[in-house]
UniProtKB/TrEMBL annotation:
<comment type="similarity">
    <text>Belongs to the SusD family.</text>
</comment>
<dbReference type="Pfam" id="PF14322">
    <property type="entry name" value="SusD-like_3"/>
</dbReference>
<keyword id="KW-0998">Cell outer membrane</keyword>
<dbReference type="InterPro" id="IPR012944">
    <property type="entry name" value="SusD_RagB_dom"/>
</dbReference>
<keyword id="KW-0732">Signal</keyword>
<keyword id="KW-0472">Membrane</keyword>
<feature type="signal peptide">
    <location>
        <begin position="1"/>
        <end position="22"/>
    </location>
</feature>
<dbReference type="InterPro" id="IPR033985">
    <property type="entry name" value="SusD-like_N"/>
</dbReference>
<dbReference type="Pfam" id="PF07980">
    <property type="entry name" value="SusD_RagB"/>
</dbReference>
<dbReference type="InterPro" id="IPR011990">
    <property type="entry name" value="TPR-like_helical_dom_sf"/>
</dbReference>
<dbReference type="GO" id="GO:0009279">
    <property type="term" value="C:cell outer membrane"/>
</dbReference>
<feature type="domain" description="RagB/SusD">
    <location>
        <begin position="353"/>
        <end position="464"/>
    </location>
</feature>
<feature type="domain" description="SusD-like N-terminal">
    <location>
        <begin position="115"/>
        <end position="242"/>
    </location>
</feature>
<protein>
    <submittedName>
        <fullName>SusD-like starch-binding protein associating with outer membrane</fullName>
    </submittedName>
</protein>
Length: 504
């Protein structure tokens, strides 16, 4: 009888941690079904209860509506990746048949906190992750709990996920790293009381502490699924945190962590063939973190694939077209394998591809369903990518260039470019670059390499660059926007302001 009760409790806990919601501040998952003490006590009897709640947390990264809306752009991390890529300017809305991004692409949402699109959904999503992580951490004894072999993996992953959520909140809601600015409330337990906004340096200190602990706790952990966090994922997140702080000391720490992940993971660089292979499978050797999407996952038109792939029955196929910024595309060398990723006029004229005039410069050979039937994939089976090892090569190159280790920077950059060009002569120019020119080239190659993978805004902020919208944007074409412009930062949503008395 007890076994059956615990199994039932596991199901309820997963559902509660992942999907339940109210209208309170943060809208954390409520505990009316399973209390923290319940989870902790049953966890001692049946450790699978905590594993189940952790699995539910990871599932929320690709579940629709986890931002608390029914909007067709609300589907977890990859939905927020699209928002951030629009903010970076590298992703251009070029046709607007269904108006899914008609208020976001012109940057109206980002200066008006009454919009639930993005402002509310991203805030709700990341604080939901934080709330679930805090529940797991408290169930294991709290932030300062004694760590044992039986709980260290769960604790490590929960702390890493809490830091992951805070990191993306800093990138989306804070214009730049200013240590004493106050934007984000810092919740590290399940007390449930509204908190005032913490200084950004305090939020960063918590992220660093969480990720350092996570990396230690997860050392040697061999995960069963790519959606789980392991030591390398934790260290990659920590490298991004340090890289966003923009000091010589933190740049060195970011570089060292990137190098550690490269050495420790043993993952190969994405090959030339894989750059036009669809980016649709967790079996790709270079993927560091991702989700195996199956028909059981239940995704359809409300999904990242629905928004980005013309071979999926959804918006990219039907009329909300998203392409690479014309100016960025023009900077890709003709001999670069990555230029093949995008639809040209020749592709459109080729009847085999079934492309239309409005498909110009969409990434139809970077991201695609393997069947390549226009509008053909109805239930999503293609996987989600969150990280790949190439990011660490480029991050190491960037950090090395910024601290003056230019030869090391060039070495890492050329290792990527060697898999993008047939001839070394095509990237020999890298050897002549120094100073800001080298930093700028690494930034450019980062934008090209990770187009539409949710990394461009992070790079924009690290490099304090300007967005220059190309001619193919429906909105604000030709406009130059600084990285710290208010329009490139989400607003704390009105509902949070109304429900948290400490936020003005």
């Amino acid at each position: 009888m007890k076994t059956q009760y615990i199994k039932s409790l596991l199901v309820v806990a997963v559902a509660t941690f992942t999907f339940s919601c109210g209208e309170d501040f943060l809208e954390e998952t409520p505990t009316q079904y399973v209390s923290i003490s319940d989870v902790g006590e049953t966890g001692e009897i049946y450790p699978g209860i905590l594993a189940g709640t952790l699995s539910g947390l990871f599932n929320s990264m690709y579940t629709t509506g986890t931002g608390g809306t029914t909007d067709h752009a609300d589907f977890g991390q990859k939905g927020n990746d699209i928002y951030s890529d629009f903010l970076s300017g590298d992703l251009a809305l070029t046709a607007n048949g269904y108006n899914r991004y008609s208020s976001f692409a012109p940057l109206l949402v980002t200066v008006d906190n009454t919009y639930t699109r993005a402002n509310y959904s991203a805030w709700r999503y990341y604080y939901r992750i934080i709330g679930s992580a805090n529940k797991i951490i408290d169930a294991l004894g709290g932030n300062d709990a004694t760590i044992t072999d039986s709980n260290k993996t769960t604790m490590g992953q929960a702390k890493a996920m809490r830091a992951y959520a805070y990191f993306y909140l800093t990138q989306l809601y804070i214009p730049e790293y200013t240590p004493t600015s106050k934007v984000l409330p810092l919740y590290i337990n399940t007390d449930g009381d509204a908190l005032e906004q913490s200084e950004t340096q305090v939020v960063y200190a918590q992220m660093i502490d969480d990720l350092e602990q996570a990396a230690t706790l997860l050392e040697g952990y061999s995960r069963a699924e790519l959606f789980e966090v392991n030591e390398d994922v934790a260290n990659t997140l920590l490298a991004y945190v340090y890289g966003s702080m923009d000091t010589n000391a933190t740049d060195i720490l970011a570089r060292d962590l990137a190098e550690k992940v490269i050495a420790n993971s043993g993952l190969p660089i994405t090959t030339k063939a894989e750059t036009i292979g669809g980016f649709n499978s967790v079996e790709t050797p270079s993927w560091l973190w991702g989700a195996d999407i199956t028909t059981d996952t239940g995704l359809d038109l409300i999904s990242w694939w629905g928004q980005m792939d013309i071979y999926t029955y959804s918006y990219q196929w039907a009329g909300d077209k998203k392409a690479i910024d014309q100016g960025l595309y023009d900077q890709i060398k003709d001999t670069d394998q990555r230029k093949i990723q995008f639809a040209t006029q020749a592709d459109i004229d080729d009847e085999v591809n079934q492309l239309q005039d409005s498909d110009i410069l969409i990434p139809f050979k970077k991201f695609y369903n393997a069947a390549r039937v226009r509008g053909g994939q109805r239930v999503i089976e293609d996987d989600y990518i969150y990280m790949r090892i190439d990011e660490l090569y480029m991050l190491s190159a960037e950090m090395n260039a910024k601290i003056g280790a230019e030869e090391d920077a060039k070495t890492r950059l050329k290792q990527i470019l060697a898999e993008r060009f047939d001839s070394a002569a095509d990237y020999a120019y890298v050897d002549t670059l120094t100073g800001q020119a080298l930093i700028d080239e690494i930034y450019l190659q980062t934008r090209i390499e990770f187009f539409a993978e949710g990394k461009s805004l992070l790079a924009l902020k690290r490099n304090k660059a300007n967005v220059v919208r190309g001619t193919n944007h429906l909105y604000l074409a030709g406009e130059v926007i600084p990285y710290n412009d208010d329009r490139l930062t989400l607003e704390i949503p009105l509902l949070e302001v109304q429900n948290n008395p400490f936020i003005n």
